[in-house]
Fold this protein.
Amino acid sequence: MPYNLPGKRSQEGWEADLKYVVTGRSSVAESVPLVIERGEGVYFWDADGNRYLDFSAGILTASTGHCHPHVIKRLQEQVPLLWHVYAFPTPQRARLCEMLTEHLPPQIDTFCFYTGGSETIEAATRACSSYRKAYLFASMTHGYHGRTLISRSLGPSLLNKVYGPTVNVCHLPYPYCYRCPLKLQYPSCGLACIELADDLLQGSGHEPLAALIFEPIAGAGGVLVPPPGAWQRLVEICRKREMLIIADEVLTGVGRTGKFMAIEHFGVQPDVMTFGKGLGSGFPIMCLAGRRDIISSYPFGEVGEGGASTSYGGNPLGAAAALGTLEAMFAEHMIENAARLGEEIRARLTPWVEKYRVVGDVRGLGLLWGIELVTDKTSKEPYPAWGWEQIYHDCLNNGVRLVPNRICPPLNITSAQLHQGLDVIEATIQALEKKPA
């Protein structure tokens, strides 16, 4: 039987919270006021005892599910020993760096740790500017890199410009084949949107460019998977200008797409990487990784200059959570599970494009998939925002929690649990079909 949300205890808890905490935290959270009390594996429970299958993995953070026993064990071992020592080395951080080096692309062997994605992106730009002695960056439309000044400047479309001017960025068209910015078709287009980048970079002025930053798969922008060869050609164009290549894997990294890093799908060697949403299984730890000559360049990597410094990054508890996460992920073959279940999602969702008039496109890799709703298949008119709001509410009331337009459960979800959630999503799409757009 569907839930009747919100329950009494959630309503009371939400009202108490609003006395002190600002609204505007998240439109998703605000739309159905739930108070979440506990989580275990791929499920969490609200204050009224309702159980939800977490198809959002927190916000792509609970990579090993909620409260994985091995991650708990690593944190429990660390708690009585040491929580924080600022910049001093610890055994946990050293072992974490060793593990990461074993699984990252060649030459990515030097690390800085932070607690949030925006902070990590800003650090990446500082490192690249230090190395190149240049301060202009190229990024992609439909990209999202954070909410601080440079990070929000990099993502042109997802944060309102009322926050003031943006800085130091040349925006290039994301290879979004379903809505091609040049109204062409792949592969006959010859990757024209990527070739356009050459002219756009040329037209960026006389200031030298420091780096290109891009998401291998655009997450918040709609789970956009580029066509074959797109990133290879774009990197080739940028390297001719001696630009560094930053792969922003804050959302896509650490097993999410069926490989340790999403860039592995595309045959590109980055110079710098950012990642971390799934690194600590929900415990805040993010990583800036790159070539040693870049990360150690002056002034970013110079002793006493403070360019890489941060108060809480790489603290012993964060390192312990990350170690526990990676150990559990590899021991339980979660990345392979993500790759295998990604093909099950592909087989399940692809027919929806023909089956349902409101489904314009589906795309993804591993356990990161997007569904694009339209009012008309020919014009591709986007479905009004209330469509996903309705799906989100209906899914919640039937025990499945989504990020609207995305499917991104924990990496240890089973096939049966996955299809249970997809059954609920499909039923809500069927219900939406019966309503006028």
Notes: The two ends are 27 Å apart (CA to CA). DSSP finds 15 helices and 14 strands in the chain. The chain has a mean pLDDT of 93. The first helix runs from residue 8 to 18.
